[in-house]
Each structure stands twice: as C-alpha cells, then as structure tokens.
Design brief:
The chain is of the alpha+beta class and 282 residues long. It has two domains: 82 residues, 434 Repressor (Amino-terminal Domain) (Orthogonal Bundle); 191 residues, Endonuclease, Chain A. The protein contains 13 helices and eight strands. It has an eight-stranded mixed sheet with strand order 1-7-6-5-2-3-4-8, sandwiched between helices. A hairpin with a 3-residue loop joins β6 and β7. α1 packs antiparallel against α5 and α11 runs antiparallel to α13. The protein is elongated, with a radius of gyration of 23 Å.
Amino acid sequence: MSTDYQRAREELGRRLRELRMECPGGRLTGDQLAQRLGWQQSKVSKLENGRQTPTDDDLRAWAEATCQAAAFGELRARLKGFESHIRSWRRQLAAGHGPVQETWNTLTSNARSMHALSNAAVSGMLQTAEYARYVFEHHAVLQNAPRDTESAVRGRMKRQEWLYRPGKRLNLLMHESVLWARICPPEVLAAQLDRLLGVVGMDTVRMGILPLDAQLRTALGNSFCMLDERLVVVEDWHAELWLDDAETIALYRRVWDTLAESAVFGTDAQQVIARVRRGIRV
C-alpha cells in the first residue's frame, strides 16, 4: 500500500478518535462506542489506527454515534480525497467487472492519446473478445468478485471503438513475454496474436514490442496507461492507482519514452509477433 494512502488513512483514523474523545455527551471508550454501533471493538481500533478503510456507512454511523452528525461531510470528503487515487479492486468489483469497464469507457472517451505499457496481458484496447473472457474470469476468481463476464467483455469491446475515431492515437508498448503468456487456451492465444498482426500499420496505433533479449535502460515495473497528459492509471494486485499530479505524469512519460528506445515497431514488431505465433501449437 502506498505511503501517501496509508498516511491519509491514519489521519482519518486520528480524526475519528477525536470525535470519540470529544463526544458532547462525554468521552466514549472504544468499547462503549462499539456497543453503540453494534460492532466488534476490534473494528473501532482498526479504523482509529488506520488499519482498515471505512465505508461511507461506517463514517455516517460513527458521526451519529458520537453525537456529531454534522461531521459526516468532512469525514466523507477525507475518504473520497484519498480513495480517488487508490481505487481498491474490492470496492470497484462489488458489482462486477461490467461497471468498471463502463467507468473506463467514460474515462477514455474524450482522450486524444494514450501511452500504455502492458507487461502482464495484451492491452485491453487490442484484446479479442475470447481472450478478454479469460482475463475477466481469472480476475473475478482471484478477487472473489461477481461473475459478469459477458457484460465486461461487451464494455471492453465498446471501448475499442475509440481506435477507429479520427484524431485518436494509441501508443502501446508490450513485453514479448505477454505474447507467450498462456492465460488462455492455445487457440485463443493464436487468434489474439493474429489480431495483433493485423493492428500493425493502423493509423491510430503505434505498437512497440520489447523483445525478450532487448537491452532495457530501466526496469519494466507495473503496467500503466496515461491518458493525454492528465492522468496515469497504474495496475496493481490490490488496486488501481489514479495519479494526476504533473510531476508524476511527467515521470511515467519518461518511463514510456525510455522503454520505447528498446522496443521494435512496424515490420520488426510484426516479425516478433509472427515468431511467437509460429511457436504456438493449436
């Protein structure tokens, strides 16, 4: 978990403790507050010490139980302030992958350009429907999330319409290991590689492949997507990190540009993809 996120959660916990200590009816102990709320005392302790992220309902109940209902607005603003940057999968996937894909569709609709690094799976912007099904199903199992695979696939395919609009540009880097990754049956992977071969040369796509033996000037790190120069979304196991400060965005652009120096494009990229494709026995 990022230091900034944890620091913000601890600050929120300290504010919750202040409300408990300053209850107009008299200071409450952790046990007394837990009894009022019908919670385990351990939950009160975790929230106050920044070891658990509260929900909106938790904050509203806390403010009311400490007889300071007007404090809810402040508490909620604090929570949304740091959650806007750390978007946990647990919360995002409460209703499945479909709504997450719709959020992404809204997010990207007005973007003119994207700079993306994919080093775990083929970029969602270029996935076939069948490949995407396996990605969503595996992730739903891992995250114990609702299985709404078909809705998620439709959302992802809808977003790919962006590639066929005038004035758009996808700048994509993928490590060669992504092309080999057997996260789906061989026949599905083969069809996915055929799709990538067909993408090379599209006016709206600049796709670079980082060969396995490429000399890299920096470590790959996590996959990420930069929308114009306004937002970077970084993928991690527990969450997506939404980063929007100028200095951080500039850093990720330098990372992309540095890795691009080691990538192959155009015909050379096709040759790498074709070589992997020939190695797949269907």
